[in-house]
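Annex B. Sample input.
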Amino acid sequence: MKSLLQTISFLLVFFIGHAQNIKPEGKLIVKNPLITKLIPENPQIEILGEGFNWSEGPCWIPSENKFVFSDVKENTIFEWTEEGGIKPYLKPSGYTGEKERGGEMGSNGLIINQNGELVICQHGDRRIAKMNADVSNPKPDFVTLSNGFDGKKFNSPNDLVYAKNGDLFFTDPPYGLERNNPNVVKEMDYQGVYKIDKSGQTILLTKEISFPNGIAISVDGKKLYVSNSDFTKPLWMVYDLTADNTIENGKVFCTAEGYDRQKMQGGPDGMAVHKSGWLFASGPGGIWIITEEGEHLGIIYTGEYTSNCTFNEDYSYLYMTANHKVLRMKLK
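Annex B, continued. Sample output.
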C-alpha cells in the first residue's frame, strides 16, 4: 500500500508540476536603484511548474539546454525544457538504500563538473556522488566522491560549487537526517564546510558556521561565500581563498537580521554569482541582490520560501526553486 501511495504521489507531482507559462505580477523591493541595471523594475516571474514537495538544487545543463532541480522529499530530480516542460529526470536521486527511511532523503545541490558530468549532494546516502551516466541518458548509478571525514559519516551534504582548478567545495548541515529518530546517529558534533581536492582528498575548511547551507565562489575565484541558515544568525559569510584553496579572513558579508519572518518568509539558503560579480542569494522574501562589496541592493520578491537559484548559460534568465514551485525571470 505504501509503495502504491508513493507512486501516486510521484505521478501527482509530475502532472501538477507540468503547468507552465503562468505569469503572475512580479515585485522588486529596491534599496538602491543600481539594482535595475540587471533586474526589470516590474519583473515578471514565470511559474514553470508547481506541486512539488520541496524544490531545491537548481542546475543548468548547457549541453542539453536544460534546467534540472531536486525535489528533496520525493527523492527525485526533475528536468525542464522549453519544448517539453517538466518531466522526471532521475529517481532515486539521493537515497539508494533498500530499507525505507524517513527524513529528507533525496538529492539537494546539483552541479555539472568540468567533464560535463552531474555531481550530486545526496541527503539520504549522506555523500557527494557523481552520476555514472551521460547527462543525456540519466541512470540511478552513482560513484561516491566522498561520504565522510575523519572516519565519520557526513550529516547530509547540501550544496556545492567548483573552483576553476577542479576543487569541489560543499556544505554539510543536518537537514537530511531523520530528525527525532534515535536510530539515526549524527556522527559529527558540528556542521562543516569542506572541499574535495583534485586528488580526491576531503579537507575540512571550517566548522564555525552553525548551519552552513548555500555556497558560491566569486567571479575572480578569490572569495568563497557561505550562507548560514540559522534563524538566530541569518547571514552570509565571505572568506579569502588562498593559493591552495583553503580559507582565511572570514567575516560577515551581509546579514538578514531584523526582517519580519511572517511577512518575509525564508532565510539565507542557496545562491549563485552573476557574471557581473553580484551575488543572487536566497533570503527573506525571495532572492537578495548583493554587490561584491556586500551592499544589499534589494530583493526579487517571490512570496514563497525561496531555496536557491541559478542562471542559464548566457545569464539571460534566472531560475529559482521556491517551495512547491519552480520559477524563472528574464534579466536585463
